[in-house]
Amino acid sequence: MKGRVTDAAFNDVVEIQQYIANDNPVAARLVRTCIEEAVKRIFRFPLIGSEGKNHSVRVFPVRPFPYLVFYTVGRGEVIIRNVRHAGRIRP
Description:
Elements: E1 2-5, H1 7-21, H2 25-44, E2 50-51, E3 57-62, E4 67-74, E5 77-85
Parallel strand pairs: 1-5
Antiparallel strand pairs: 2-3, 3-4, 4-5
Helix pairs in contact: 1-2
């Protein structure tokens, strides 16, 4: 199955890293690495995440950090849509 990261998701990760790097560049690199590892895991196991409120979008946590990867699976492709801080998600 092919995997793709949208520009929006890529920009989310860049913004997250830049925000954290203002206080701690080492932590920023660690968070980015964990996000990238979560994305790789999603590409290998597309159904690993749980279904979100919109049943076409799946959600996978970035452990041990409070970030969530939002993605869709379909027609032989996994698409990473967004990466968000869990505190920014509305219930």
